[in-house]
Write a structure and sequence with these properties.
elongated, homotetramer, 2 domains, disordered C terminus, DNA-binding, Arc Repressor Mutant, subunit A, mainly alpha, 216 residues, Tetracycline Repressor, domain 2
DNA sequence: AATGAATGAGCCTTCATTCAT
DNA sequence: AATGAATGAAGGCTCATTCAT
């Protein structure tokens, strides 16, 4: 049975063979290494191909263009982060809201351990291309689900609230990564992030400080 | 006889004559327009010069290179934002902590009104260059001062706490800008940002949830 | 897998395929032609690429930058000159010192026949870059070997003497080329060069006029 | 009486006022300094004007273009060298041919003392522009006159012989300067140059090795 | 006479991408 | 599937030169 060659987003050949899968992996790995070593300026398709040990032609066999490569890399990172968070939650013994929040925060922070340079570059690159948005979705959903379980005595979050909380959390973490803050992996930092999330969740539940709004 | 020079970062001619000052302004304005119109990809020195109505040579008479131009633009934006915040605070009639927080948040959000594209591009560009950090400083200082006035019954914030709060706030605003969220200027969004800041400040003051930290 | 690379001075692709070798030759030939036609001012990388019938990108695939191209050209000229001298000596029937000197001089002068403009430009360019020195080495060595064969009843030359003789000889020839002297290829000119070399060699052997040095 | 503004070679205003003369001197001095400090690549009209403490406009008031400036500089150097040689000859007590040759050689070598970098650059620049020739004239004449005084028992030199001798001598000196040879100012080097000139002069007088010319 | 802001042709170089092998 | 030589549009930037003040 001939499997149809489903064109994906970058309408390039989908790898259905082991070798092809390896090649794609090698390219992505090469891309990450180039990014790690030289940042965004060094991230050229030729450099990636060379680092990956494949020819530039082969690279283009699997990625429609440079930004497709970048997108794939970002996706890989995002998937890894989400998997880490999910795993952390599964193995978390403390079932309280705070326990789950802490597990999530920790997994997210940990996701930036090692290869910081590459992640930073990926973040920058993704921003610089304006891809941002869709990658944030899953994490936001996660927060919405985790933080707003109504059965835990917390109010369900509105879309704006999910947005604010998820972006605020990611904003703090991302800034720590981009600015290469030394306390990135310190327990104190984690504590403060947890405090931020918890305080907000509780304030929303308490309906505080809702009404007192000055006329714009 | 050595002519006076600008600080190291930009060893280009400093304007002596009125005409020169106008030229610099025209270039910066042209840069903002190019950014607004075409985003970062369109931001070439030639395009800026043309839009500004000056020759490329003139541009380089005042800006050492492309990134210096971008930096100057970012500085201009940052200065404007800070001025707006300061002005908002001065004219704020409500002296309570929340009143001041709200004024600050509103000014920051408003700073992104109009020319959103350009600001987005500036932010992206600045990020893409890795300049980020120093521009955040003033805002962080602002938050530290505003939010942690001890005489208002609030605890003084630690450096990590200032970092978390300022980056979280900016992260949410910046995400709304970058993602072009429709609620960017809605009162609800502002409310949630205020809630976030206030909840965190109060949680810090209450010392909550400090100690309960799982072993890493 | 790292591809083999040329030595440091020119980290560009080394030709693997026949086509590539031809390309390099075409570029060098194009460079010589441009130089011949328009001199140094016309020697731009774009002009060379166009004359060579390749794209500018291809040129840069084989030469790190403009000066590398110039260097390669100079090397080619130098190698050709040396080969001509060596060949002349091999086929020289007169085994006397003067016979050998004459053969060398003639080969050197002949080396500047044709494409004078290009050679002139190469010399100028090389000088203008300050590369000069190392290219002179082989010729000096040649003179040292040729002129100072002790078994011919001539004293061995000191390093300073080798320097003076080689540079003086080359200086006269180069000046004739640069100044486009009509007698460049006349027998008389050759005679005088031979006379210069022979007279110096004999004077050195005679130890004349060594000692009579005035106090500086 | 209105003095006519004689256009000279660069058809720019001839300085008839003290201030103007000073300005020209300042520019030439600035040019020499720029050359000395940064070599040919740094030698831009703007840099020279700045170093000279005048505006670029003023520079162009006195020099038609960049090469005119360079030519003037070369002329200045040449004049200085010739003056030094002439002075050395005047004060030379030894009236013998060799005494006069030695005085000349020494003065020429000395002319390259100090500001070697600038002179090197001037030489390079002049070569790179192809101006060379005419500057050599005076020195050649000098040699012709000095070396070929028939009343000293030496044959009169033919034009080719003057050429060969003057270029050979200058070639050796110039090479020593360009290659920054340590022995440039050593007595040994001077000795060898004297030996070269004397040997050639004597060989010419002896008519040796005139006839034995192989068929070309 | 002097100033210096402005000019702009044109240079060098990069790098995403193609396509014949 | 893979290769890698070739492409060329386009970008950043320099610097000799002009001219209004």
């Amino acid at each position: 049975m001939a499997r149809p060659r489903q064109p994906i987003e970058n309408n390039r050949r989908i790898p259905h063979q082991a070798r092809a899968t390896e090649t794609v992996a090698a390219i992505l790995e090469g891309a990450a290494q180039v990014l790690e070593a030289g940042g965004l300026p060094a991230f050229t398709t030729n450099a990636v191909a060379e680092r990956a040990g494949v020819s530039i032609g082969t690279l283009y066999q699997y990625f429609a263009d440079k930004s497709a490569l970048l997108r794939a890399l970002a996706e890989r990172e995002m998937t890894a982060t989400l998997a880490a968070v999910a795993k952390a939650l599964r193995s978390e013994t403390d079932p309280s809201v705070e326990g789950r929040v802490r597990a999530t925060v920790r997994a997210m922070v940990n996701a930036f351990r090692g290869r910081q340079r590459a992640r930073k570059a990926v973040v920058q690159a993704v921003l610089a291309q304006g891809i941002t948005v869709e990658m944030m979705g899953p994490i936001a959903a996660f927060i919405a689900e985790t933080g707003a379980a109504p059965h835990r005595g917390l109010a369900r979050l509105s879309p704006e609230q999910v947005f604010v909380l998820s972006r605020a959390l990611m904003g703090a973490i991302r800034a720590a990564v981009l600015e290469e803050q030394p306390f990135l992996r310190s327990p104190t930092f984690e504590d403060e992030l947890v405090r931020l999330v918890m305080a907000y969740l509780q304030a929303v539940t308490a309906g505080d400080p809702g009404p007192r709004r000055t006329i714009a």
